[in-house]
Amino acid sequence: MDNSKQPGIRCDNILLAESEFRRIPALPNDLEFKLNINIQNSISNDNRRLVCEITVVMNSENDPVYMKVKFVGIFSVTDDGNMEIKQFAETNAPAILFPYIREEIHGRMLKAGLPKAVILPPLNLIALVKKTNSE
Fold first, then answer.
1. What pTM was computed for the model?
2. In which domain, by residue range, is 17 found?
3. 115-130: per-residue pLDDT in tens?
4. Could you tell me if residue 1 is inside a domain?
5. pLDDT the model gives residue 133
6. DSSP string covering 66-126, please?
7. DSSP codes joined into one string, 30-56
8. Backbone phi, psi, residue 29, to 5°
9. Mean pLDDT throughout 40-59?
């Protein structure tokens, strides 16, 4: 890869594929949130198209607050491709999708009237992708 050039990968679409939210009316004072993040990358046989799917599940379905969000990013290599699509899939694609996930979760939780704002912390996406790929 030539570091003086752009990667040559285009974002064709970002889709909210799934958004599910539930809460009980009377929330406990010690409300906690547990995140489960799953990243799935699918690369075409000719290495020219990438579909990156990120699913974030907050808590379990039996907890007072439950949320599941899935975003899909569709990327393609341009004619002046400068970066391997596999390398882009490991770091760049999840990093592009994550602000959309963060905004969906924050907005939904805010509208739900939770006692405190829920803002996902910055994440080390490289470590997260490596952990997901090793499982």
1. 0.87
2. 9-134
3. 777 888 787 877 777 7
4. no
5. 65
6. EEEEEEEEEEEE-TT--S-HHHHHHTHHHHHHHHHHHHHHHHHHHHTT-SS---PPP--HH
7. T----EEEEEEEEE-TTS-EEEEEEEE
8. -70, -30
9. 94
Rounded (5°) CA angle 9-129-47: 35
Reported as a single tens digit per residue, the pLDDT across 14-33 is 999 999 999 999 999 888 89
Question: Which position has the token pair 């699918």?
Answer: 42
Distance CA 75, CA 89 (A): 9
- Indicate the residue type of 111: K
- Number of compact structural domains in the chain: 1
Residue 3 located in a structural domain: no
Per-residue CA distances from 33 to 19, 59, 73, 110, 130 (Å): 17, 6, 26, 14, 23
CATH number of the domain at 84, please.
3.10.420.10
**Is 4 a domain residue?**
no
The torsion of the CA quartet 125, 15, 57, 63, rounded to 10 degrees, works out to 150
Q: Is residue 75 part of a domain?
A: yes
d(CA 92, CA 112): 31
